[in-house]
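Researcher: Good morning. I'm working through a list of sequences from a screen, and I'd like to move beyond sequence-only analysis. For each chain I'm collecting a predicted structure so we can compare shapes side by side. This is the next one on the list. No need for commentary yet; just the structure.
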Amino acid sequence: MLLRVLAIFAAFCAFADGVSAGPTLDGKTPACQQFSETRLCGDPVSELPAQVLSEVRDIAGLCKEVGGRPLTGPVIGHGRLAGGPAFWTVDGATLECEGAWSLFSNAHGWDSVIFVSLPDGQVKRFTVVGFGLTTAPAASPTRLWAAVAGVNCGQRDARSTAETIGCERELVWRADAQQLDFAPLSQARFKPAFEEAWAQSASKPDGFPDPRPAAQSPAAPVTRVYTKIDDVRANRHDLCKVVQRSGTRDNPVLEERCPPGPDGWTVSLFSADAREFVRFGRQAGAGKTVSEALEGAFADPNSVIEWRLRDGKPFAAIHRYFLDDRQLLTVHSLQPDKTSCVAAVVNVRRGQDANEQAVSIADRLGLNYRCSRDSFVVD
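Model: Good morning. Structure tokens for this chain:
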């Protein structure tokens, strides 16, 4: 129930003609102007930075890569932070991607990208994982707030998603370090529903403290990164290079090295006997291989891989496979020794959001999953 309250934090601009932008925190509605397929809400500008336009194109392109169809969005915000620099925000969750609605958003939050213009003319990119960005008030300089939850609101480990507490944290510009940081937790905005939750849990030994009197250092949020490999379904082979070849001329066995993932994780594409699968790092000595998880089925891997990271370190990868009559998502646990195994498989079913299910499983298993110890999950 508390997560539903978080929806009021994410004040989004609407894209359809004749629909006004969402309100700022002070209840005002910023003016919007049209830029091709998207809309900018906030201070008017004559043109958008190339980096912002590239981000918009990448978001729409990723929607298409996973078989979706971009309808409208994403929305762009603009203003000027205290201290002088202009900023632009791109909220991926405001892209309507038909066929993959939760690609950029789910119950655990989504990526909001902020571009800040530096004095030397460069534009620096920042990412905040939460439930959207808002501005307050609609004046200059602009105060920028992020809706976040859980540890970023000072809460200890929640026992379930429903118990997660949300708040709004202001983002402040540190000119000396050219960095965006959260303002102290004591300055966070908490909604009445959360105030009541604190009162109810304050006496519990395993409850969460009221974080306002003393700021705590929040744990790093989970972020995501996307990388690409060859599109084998479209017979496009320009990213992965053959590093080992065996078998026969009629039945070759190939190992290809693809562009690496974050933190140097190797990505290998294997093909043999009309079967293709991807491995991350080295195969863990225990735990499911991709072939075992797919039960030996003929399958084609998708060209897009999602990596789940905490504090810049990948702990899971999510990959889609296309079988003859169905699709499924494999959730790979990335071990500290740069080995991996398949921790879970999510079957794609009509009426269910497999992407969100895979993300939920990956984040729940997190850094604690061990290929040699923990069970294989089928959803």
